[in-house]
Specification:
With 101 residues, this protein is mostly helical. It has helices at 4-32, 37-63, 68-79, 83-100. It is built from four helices and no strands.
Length: 101
């Protein structure tokens, strides 16, 4: 059994959390506390997670025969604050359904 969907969900949550940390902690530290290194560190981590998210989203699309609408929805979730966290409930359901097939 493939574990692509499981990895996708884990990376999606990490990507979503890193995005919130970047927006809610690192950027305020940069602009209000003159600590630009926070954005450098968190931004780099978020960038790696974002690339991994996109790669895994494409793998899930292929492996689980998802349509383009699914991929676009996943992409939108990755650029909206809380997007991947909100979508996790739906993705968890999709992953469970895929395991029963």
């Amino acid at each position: 059994m493939k574990k692509t969907f499981s990895w996708f969900r884990k990376v999606a949550l990490a990507e979503g959390i890193s995005f919130l940390v970047l927006l809610g902690i690192a950027m305020p530290l940069k602009y209000f506390a003159d600590m630009p290194k926070a954005v450098t560190i968190v931004g780099s981590l978020h960038g790696v997670l974002f690339v991994a998210f996109i790669v895994l989203a494409r793998e899930v699309k292929t492996d689980y025969k998802k349509d383009l609408k699914w991929l676009i929805k996943a992409g939108l979730a990755s650029v909206l604050p809380f997007g991947t966290i909100i979508m996790d409930k739906e993705w968890r359901k999709e992953e469970a359904e895929a395991k029963t097939i």
